[in-house]
Structures are given as C-alpha cells and as structure tokens.
Write a structure and sequence with these properties.
mainly alpha
C-alpha cells in the first residue's frame, strides 16, 4: 500500500474517532450531533479518496460522496451503499455554517440518529478499508 494511501486512511480514521468521541460527550446537544454526522461524512470522503489515490487515479478535491464512490469503481459497494451515501452527503455543508439559509432545510440530528450514522459509517469504513488490503 502506498504511503499516501496510508495517510488518507489515518486521516479518515481520525474523523471517525472524532465522531465517536463527540457522540459520547455528556454535554452534547443537537449541534454536537450535527458535527458527529459531519465527521462521519468526512471519514467516508477520506477513505474513498484513499481508494482513488491507491488506484493511481486523479484525486479530485471535492466533497461529493456519490461522485467519489463512483470514482472508486467498486461497483458492488457502490450499488450496495449508494442510498446511504446519498443521505450522508447532504450533511457536508450545513454543520459548518449555522447562518446559511439552507440550514433550515436540514433536519436536526438527535442522539439516536447520530449514533445510527456512526454505526453505519463504521461498517462502511471497515468494508472500504478491507478493500484496500
């Protein structure tokens, strides 16, 4: 495995760990849970980029998960996870800017939704990491 691929994997793992840490914060609130989901998005984004880099394909500095998933050319994973990745993709921008007019169109995240998102992220992350071995 390439050194750059390993760096992307480590970076992706740190986002997943951050999501898990925030989820367990006893003072967490709806905004914390939105950050949890954002870090899940970041984790999947970066593990997808690790696959793209490992395949020596051009790395696009984008945040569009469905497009990145497609660029991995892992058809069985794309088909199996497409709907979930599409649902996670909408949480890229909203958690970062609370004053955006778009923010009002995003559902607030409660602890259970955040917990479910972390679980699904971990499952897909493990699957994608295994693909790299």
């Amino acid at each position: 495995m390439k050194a750059l691929t390993i760096k992307w994997i480590q970076f992706a793992e740190s986002d997943l760990q951050t999501a898990e840490y925030l989820l367990d914060n006893p003072k967490a609130n709806q905004w914390t849970f939105l950050q949890v989901v954002w870090h899940c998005h970041q984790s999947i984004e970066k593990i997808l980029k690790a696959i793209i880099v490992n395949k020596e394909k051009e790395l696009l500095y984008i945040h569009d998960l469905p497009k990145l998933l497609k660029l991995t050319e892992i058809d069985d994973l794309v088909d199996k996870n497409k709907d979930w990745v599409f649902s996670l993709n909408k949480y890229y921008i909203a958690p970062r800017y609370p004053d955006l007019p778009l923010r009002q169109n995003y559902p607030l995240i409660n602890k259970q939704k955040a917990k479910d998102t972390v679980k699904s992220t971990r499952e897909l992350f493990i699957c994608l990491k295994e693909y790299l071995k």
